[in-house]
Structure formats: structure tokens, C-alpha cells
Amino acid sequence: MKIKKNTIAGKFYPSHKKELLALLDDFYSKTSVGIGYFSRAVIVPHAGYIFSGELALQGYRYLNPNSERIFIFAPSHYARLYGCVSCSFEAFETPLGNCSVDDELAKNFVINDEAFQNEHSIDVQLPFIKYFFPNAKIIPVLYGCEDYKNIAELIKKYWTDKNTSFVISSDLSHFYPEREAVKIDTYTAQMIETCNLKNFDAEQACGAVGICGIVEFAKVFNYSLIRLGLTNSAKRTGDSSKVVGYGSWFLYEGDYADYLKKYYSVQILDICKKSISSGLQLGDFEINSYPSVFEEAGASFVTLKIDGELRGCMGSAIAHRPFILDLIENSHSAAFKDPRFEPLSIDELDFLKISVSILSVPYKIVFSNESELLKNLTPFVDGLIIRDGEYQAVYLPAVWEYFGDNKKEFLKSLKLKAGMSEDYFSDTMQAFKFKTVEISQ
Question: Over 346-381, what HEC string results?
Fold first, then answer.
């Protein structure tokens, strides 16, 4: 049997089985799945376990437990490559036992065994795979100069097999001062989470091609990449002068807002209630106790009612801060800063009903006259933002209940809210439509 010898044990992770298992068990005890959802694709770091092992294992905890074949897409650090290559090895050696290669799939790529000899971006992933999927076969794929869309096409090609999963091996920024690295990695995370690859730079991640490939795949199918965590080497070493960033995400076959509603509705309403309670000086709460998914940028409107009557509503039309902060600020503003109402009193708290609208990314409507604008609207589905200079206003999809399917009256009312006349129109006027996911008590 042709086995690829392990060259990184003792450097990136312990070389002895017992010690390595103890470390993985420790990581396992410090992480959790938290929901009943398992993914078929994850982005995980490939640094030494002391730096990023716990975050990487967190990603593997979300990977489909029924995985029989696992593609590993990883950057080549040492060999100069053009396109993607695999190998003719039948297995890769690890302290936990050999990881078998699916040679039938591997031979579909150009074979370049030499590129794998000293490459850590593949080998770092293998103990995790052996730990969680002892019988799974791997398809190791290294890339160099490659179009990320080719990675997306490869994932699409093999996605039809429900027992095939995908690991994108990548660290984030390299060797910036920690403060700058955090800014870069946060920006990278936002690009990943919004599936926006415009201006994604190779310097943002050593596995940028693989990351962009899975993001492109997600964008095509309207899937989402859900954050599991961000960290960097300074958290472990204490040296903030030159750090390496790490992140982990899993692919969700649906929309971010739908994911939040399905798995975190209780927590979302709890955040809103605690924010309002703290405004009444009834205690405070620790935002760091919430999952990393709440650190993704999100836009929300928080609506308060008492006995079915509106008591306050405030929100954000555009995602511009972590979702948890957006919820906290909008809940507080709806209770105490809505100019239409007096601040909420403590006597009203027990009668308060909270609902949250999570907004999608606004889509710009292209139009040359009002009729074209109205044709782009779907009553009861689309929310609408209009703006022109200092004029701006937003209506949630729920507002359609006051107008039925009368698009013209809906737009007239929104114009008046913005401070325009009801027949206002100009060549510089802009409009954006969006959808919402509703969560209510």
C-alpha cells in the first residue's frame, strides 16, 4: 500500500496517539453543536492545534456525521501549482491511524504526489477526520493558481451525493498587528457571510481560492455560511505584534434569517426583553454568552405592542453592526425613544408583546418612472426603502395590511413618511426592496 508519511506530527499536533486523543477530547469538551443541524461543508483553520485546534474541531462538530467521503480543498504552501491536483497515495498516515483515500475520485484530478510531501494544510485536518469519521475516505485536493469558480463547480458536481462532504482548509490574515488583523478578519467574515466576493483579496486568507469557491457555491444556491467563531494567535501567545487570524463557518442550506428563526427564536426574544428590562434598571446581561452567529452583521426592526396596539417600533434598514447589538439597541429604542410614544413604564412590562423582523440584504430596484418602480413590488412580501437626498423612509412588509394590494397607495404613504409630497418623483430617487422573517411572542 502506498502511504503518505506524516511529516507534521510533533509540530502541529502531538505525535503520540494517547496525547493527541486527550487534546481532541479536551477540545470536544469545550465546544458544542447547540442545534440539531448538520452541514456538508465547513471552513476550518489549518494552523497548529495550540492556536486554532479548538475552533477547527468546533467546525467538524457541525459536519454531517454520515459523511463517507470528504473532499479537502487546501492551498499549496510550498509547491507552485496551476489548478487543482490530487495524489496517488492510498492512505495518509496519522497518529490515530491511516486515513484512506478514495482513489476513484482522486484520479479525476491531475496527480502530483510531490506537492503533498511536506504540505500541512491537508495533514492538519486528518486527525479531526479520523476522530469524527473513522471510516470515511478522503479526497485531498491542493490548489495554487486557480479560478475560485472552478472550486465552486467541483463542489456542485459532487454535491448530489448526500454522503459526500467538503472541508475548506484556510487560515485568515497573516502577520499584522492584532488590532489591524481583527479589522481585516472581521471584514473578511462579513464578505463570507453576505456572499459578497467583490474585492476579496488573496491577502485576506491563505486559502482565499477555497473560501471564495464555497462562497460562490452558496451564492448560486441561496445558501448561507454561518459563523462559528473568529480568533487569532495572540489569544494564545499574548504576542499582538504579528498575528495570524483564524475563522470557522458551516454551510447552511437556507437563508441566515431563516436559520435564526428556526434555531434561535427564543434567544432573540430573550435578548430584546433583557435589553428593555435593563433600560428599566431591572438588571443587565452578558452578550458574550450568546453564540457567534449573533456576531454576524444583521438588520432588525423590533415592534412592541400592548393589547394589540402599537407601543413602539424602531429598527435598522441596513445591516451595519453585529446582530446582537442591533437587537439590543432597537429594543431599547422601541421602548424608550420612539418619538410617537412616552417611554415605556415598568408597569407596562408584563403586558408587552415583542416581535422582531429580520431583514434581508436590500436589493436595488432599477426604474425610470413610478410605474416601473411599482411593477417591481410584490404586496405582502416586499418591504421598501426610498431615499433622495435628505429624504428617506422605510416600510416593512407587514405595513401592506393597511393598504391591501394597492401598490400606489403604499408608495404614496411611504413618500409622505419620508417628507416628500405624495406625487414626488425625481431622477435621483432610489428604491430598495427587501424581505423579512418574523419572530413573535
Answer: HHHHHHEEEEEEEECCCEECCCCCHHHHHHCCCCCC
